[in-house]
Amino acid sequence: MLERNMLTVKAERRPVAKSDDVQMELSERPLGVFSRQIMLADALDTEHIQAGFDAGVLTLRIPISERAKPRKISIGVGSGHKEISG
To answer: What 3-state DSSP class applies to 66?
Structure first.
């Protein structure tokens, strides 16, 4: 959930289904419900967030907004023009 640049991730980790041919000796990850909140910078494009979940890992991709990227501007110098980057 995203509200006012605060991204909230909520999930629940449940026990692995038991199987006759697999025996778990030790599990170091806690079970249950958890939540994380991340404050996102204004320079990020929150309209284009992508999320993926693979092998127990959540990956979030949040691009930088176009208005925050460097751009070239023209500066008038006397009678001519010069271009700078920044």
So the answer is: helix
pLDDT by residue, tens only, the chain of 86 residues:
899 999 999 999 888 777 778 787 887 888 899 999 999 999 999 999 999 999 888 999 999 988 888 888 888 777 666 666 66
The model scores a pTM over 0.70: no
C-alpha pair distances (Å), 31 with each of 4, 36, 37, 59: 30, 15, 19, 20
Residue ranges making up the domain that contains 10: 2-14+32-85
Element (H, E) at 77: strand 72-77
Query: Could you tell me if residue 26 is inside a domain?
Result: no
What is the distance between the alpha carbons of residues 86 and 79, in angstroms, rounded to a whole number? 23
Q: What is the CATH number of the domain that holds 8?
A: 2.60.40.790
73 within a domain of the structure (yes/no): yes
